[in-house]
Design brief:
This protein has two domains: 8-40, no CATH class; 43-145, GMP Synthetase, Chain A, domain 3, CATH 3.30.300.20. It has helices at residues 43-66, 111-124, 126-132; strands at residues 9-13, 16-21, 24-28, 72-80, 98-106, 138-145. It is built from three helices and six strands. The chain is of the alpha+beta class and 146 residues long. Pfam families: OsmC (PF02566). InterPro entries: KH_dom-like_a/b, OsmC/Ohr_fam, OsmC/Ohr_hydroprdx_reductase, OsmC/Ohrsf. This is Putative OsmC-like protein.
Length: 146
């Protein structure tokens, strides 16, 4: 199978970035107290949103294959990092040290089937696997019925 390319184009002014992806436009920005215009989520929150969106998209594909009754998933994702790394302290890593993922699955399926959906989704989600495969980020992920 041939590779599929994904691409964006962006323009930036100071810390505000306008991103164009296909027919969509969104902003990645910082709050005003950090020099931004607060036109969009910051880069790290955008990454966490990408994780939620990717997990949801893959879960819906997997649910269809499993004949799993999936009405929806609500995600709460928290990434923790030491900001000293972002500020230039070379002794501190600049990336998330931990990720905590809580998924509330709207379904009447059993707990075992929910875990099967989680495992299959995690194994196929590109964003989840990019983060997991760094081997530097401790990921705690819990999926349960809503």
């Amino acid at each position: 199978m041939a590779l599929v390319n994904f691409n964006i184009e962006s323009t930036s002014q100071k810390v505000t970035t306008e991103v164009k992806a296909r027919a969509h436009t969104f902003f990645v920005d910082e709050p005003k107290n950090l020099g931004g215009n607060d036109k969009g989520a910051n880069p790290l929150n955008t990454l966490l949103g990408s994780l939620a969106g990717c997990e949801n998209a893959i879960a819906n594909m997997v649910a269809k294959e499993m004949k799993f009754n999936l009405n929806g998933i609500d995600f709460k994702i928290e990434g923790a990092l030491d900001p000293k790394g972002l500020m230039g302290d070379a002794s501190v890593k600049q990336y998330f040290q931990t990720l905590t993922i809580e998924a509330l699955v709207d379904t009447d399926e059993s707990d075992e089937r929910i875990q099967e959906l989680k495992e299959k989704t995690d194994s196929r989600c590109p964003v989840f696997n990019i983060l997991k495969d760094t081997n530097f980020i401790k990921i705690q992920s819990t999926w349960r019925r809503k």
